[in-house]
Structures are given as C-alpha cells and as structure tokens.
Amino acid sequence: MVEHRGRVHAQSYTVPASGAWTGPALMAGSADASASSTALTAALRSGDYQIGTNAQLTEGFGAQIALYRDATFELGFTRYFDTAKRLTKRKDRTGLAIDATTIPAPARQVRSGTRGLGTRSSRAFPSSPSVPARRAEVPSSPRP
Length: 144
Hints:
Number of strands: 10
Distance between the termini: 78 Å
Order of helices and strands: EEEEEEEEEE
Radius of gyration: 23 Å
Low-confidence stretches: none
Shape: globular
Strand order of the largest sheet: 1-4-5-6-7-8
Number of helices: 0
Oligomer: single chain
Helix content: under 10%
C-alpha cells in the first residue's frame, strides 16, 4: 500500500500451519517509496518501522506478544490472558530477542494498593482493604 506522501506500507499475517498459528502479524512502514521488510530479523533503515503481534494463541485469544521495532529501538511485551480470554498481565520482554516466541512463566503477583481486575467480574476493584467513606453531616436548619 502506498500512502498519499509516497511512503510504502506492507503487512504480514499469522498463518495456520500444523494446527497452530505461525509467524507474526505486522504492519511495516517505510520513510520513502521503497518497501520496508516484514521480517523480524531483517535490518531496518532509518525511518522504517514495524508494529504488530507474535505468538498467536488459539482462536479468540489475543496474541501473546505485542511489539514495536524501528532502526534504533525495539520494544516487546508478553501478554497473559485468563480462561475468559481477558488480558490479565503485561510484562516487558527485556532480555529476549524481538523475534523470540518464548513465553516466560508469569511471576507471582504481589498485590499492593493498586487497582486490578477481578477474576469473576470485568469491574475494577481495590486490591487493598479500604475504609468506607464517612458521610458528611449536614446541619439541619430550624424551620420558621
């Protein structure tokens, strides 16, 4: 695809092979009229970028890896899902190659006073005990 400024965009898609999904799903863009690579191992030129997912689970789940890559920077996140197909955790893939499909075991979460998602609801809940708010008393004015 060529946009109105003459920059070329290309896409690659995850494909089914032997009962599993294989390869990344990427959108690659270039800074000029020559195509950018959609291979995660290829060198990128200045202005080229790739954004997408890798390590697709079974149908209905999101991909386990979300990534962005350009000529000077790579960023990947491992994403963990519960059995209801909801995203429960996202972890930086520091120390892993951008094309690696290794999924590290999720570290045990230590809850702090932050908000998280319950396993039986999609509503946020406070993960630390909270004190109920006290009602402000409104003085009553005598009637004339």
